[in-house]
Amino acid sequence: MKKPVVIVGSGLAGVTVARELRKLDADKPVVIVSADDGGFYSKPSLSNALAAGKSPAQLLLTPRETLAMQLKAEIRPHARVTQLLPAERAIEIAGGRTPRLAPAGRIEYEQLVLALGAQPIRLPIEGDGAAGVLAVNNLADYAAFRARLEGKRRVAILGAGLIGCEFANDLRLAGFAVDVFDIAPQPLGRLLPPVTAAFFRQKLAAAGVCFHFVAGVVRIERDGETFRLTDNGGGGHAADIVLSAVGLKPETALARAAGLAVNRGIVTARSLATSDPRIFALGDCAEIEGMVLPFVMPIMAAARALAKTLAGTPTDVAYPAMPVVVKTPACPTAVCPPPAGSAGAWREEATADGVKALFEDAAGRPLGFALAGSPAAERQALGEQMPAWL
Ligand SMILES: Cc1cc2nc3c(=O)[nH]c(=O)nc-3n(C[C@H](O)[C@H](O)[C@H](O)COP(=O)(O)OP(=O)(O)OC[C@H]3O[C@@H](n4cnc5c(N)ncnc54)[C@H](O)[C@@H]3O)c2cc1C
Q: How far apart are the C-alpha atoms of 172 and 81, rounded to whole Å?
């Protein structure tokens, strides 16, 4: 019997590869192996679900059984892959001790796709409350977070990056008191130049988000049902729930143990092939031509290219410039970073309604942008003028 394409991971990357492959080849056997329950949800919706009035159950877009039928694929849920065996073209799945977990087993593949995602980074925080810090990186985490919010009022968020700021705005809209801590001096430190960041900060502060900058949380203690946080300046803060949003680390352990090339992520060429030509990687776990791009649009582009390759037409991924929208209704914001390694400088134009920042080369050509407030409406038109990323 023909061996299948095996996809490890049922997130956006894994499911989109399978969807795109089915458009090109109706019959190729496909097996999706997933540590989670294998249903499909939109991860970006996790950080604006409160304002959208959505419960965790409503965020599940396609239950596993329906997805398996749509994709004409076998989906193995609750199955954690513990080993890649490239020489044998096989993967090993851990045995489950509870009925919920899939039994141990081995699956042989024709081609293997790693769509393993990324893991939340955990800060080294002292104190007996540190173990109670939550992170949200999938629907199950989110359901647990929402359950913990019941009857609570004060949420502390560690990290004023994209995800921290989106959760902060969403929680404020739902009436929670929100404190956000970051060691950086501004929000969205890696994405926004200073004037744009100051406008963004002021709008979110006006919506009630209480920012603490240059303030890393170093200690968290339990105080009955609540937490007592200490920042690096010695300041004390109380919270009912602590949510960590300090970044994600590509899931590379399996690939590394199997001897595949790994850097920040699982290293792939533009073809999305890893250092083993039968194993491919994409999504949050992958470093494609030196770039780790944990966002929806690059993942969709990579999935379309990889599906063509798996269907028999070797295809490299191409990345046009892809603006990222920050889902903060208090300050509509869009960012299009310049291509990696670009030389240039930011030029920021501020008005009462917002800031338009262009990253320009020495000749004044725009290579990237950051838009906050009403200029965010220009993101599509501006995006089309930006140079391709790859
Ligand atoms: C709160 C939040 C909001 C976001 N908002 C936006 C946004 O507005 N715009 C945007 O562009 N991007 C956004 N992103 C980023 C975007 O959602 C991700 O880049 C994308 O969903 C990642 O998809 P993925 O398939 O690579 O990873 P994941 O969705 O993490 O999927 C990984 C899969 O691998 C499985 N897996 C891992 N290890 C194993 C193993 N050993 N065995 C078996 N299975 C395994 C997991 O169970 C899971 O099914 C957001 C992210 C978060 C967390």
A: 39
